[in-house]
Amino acid sequence: MSITSDGIAEKKRIALTSVLAAIFLTSFKLVIGLSTGSLGILSEALHSGLDLIAAGITLFAVRAADRPPDADHNYGHGKIENFSALFETLLLLITCGWIIFEAVHRIVTKNLQIDVTVWSFIVILTSIVIDFSRSRALYKVAKKYNSQALEADALHFSTDIWSSSVVLFGLTGAAFKFYYADTISAIIVAAIVLYISFRLGKKSFDVLVDKSPEGIKEIISSLIKDIPEVKNFHDIKVREAGAKKFIEFNIHVDKVLTIDEAHEITHRVEKAITGRIENVTVMIHTEPEEII
Predict the structure, then answer these.
(1) Residue 137: pLDDT over 80
(2) Where are the domains of the chain?
(3) For residue 228, how many other CB atoms are within 10 A of its CB?
(4) Could you tell me the fold of the domain covering 216-289?
(5) CA-wise closest residue to 41 among 108, 102, 110
(6) 5-208 CATH
(7) Model-level pTM?
């Protein structure tokens, strides 16, 4: 089952709204962060800035990845999504490096005092509300179309919810003259981002090196076993490219069957798999079963 034109349009639309949300949040946080000197808010501004870059990459990726196969790309362009997700991981790691460096620098130089205003709290609370709505919308579409690029974008926004909450704690501490709270919160933000980066990067890398998706071979085996005309099967291979899965394997059928009968069995196996697993291409090699 392939993604329809309406589905492609929905993916593009949700990716575009993420870009607009990231532009607003980055600008808002940067203005307030610079005016207050809060490392927590500035780290959030940088994080949102990289989210903006990531959202732009995602928008490009979902547009490019849904192009049909051509003479030079026989399996389509789906891995552009996986590559963009891996690139977003690198952006997250850059964020962590800057936050940790600046936090350590402020602790060493004891340059900890910040100017906490009502706008400091407004920008963070606004960020949490927008990030929550964006992450839910992105996850919904990512799950619907198995889009790793949109899932990566959703992870960015969901990470921002937690990191913004931590920064909110830091600002509250700073409001009571405990200025270390802001720096500590920035380091916690970096730790959260590192964790998310590892999860996202591993998943993207696994797809790019054609690691078989967990559990899918068991599903295929179960479906084939339900068709009694298949005497044996082996060499199940599965790879992913964006939202698309490619499956190939060998089946054995009774050698006395005609070509048409063997083809009909092969078609039934293919139909069983495509009915259970969405957006998949199945390649089956049919062999005669030798009676010993």
Answers:
(1) yes
(2) 5-208, 216-289
(3) 7
(4) Alpha-Beta Plaits (3.30.70)
(5) 102
(6) 1.20.1510.10
(7) 0.62
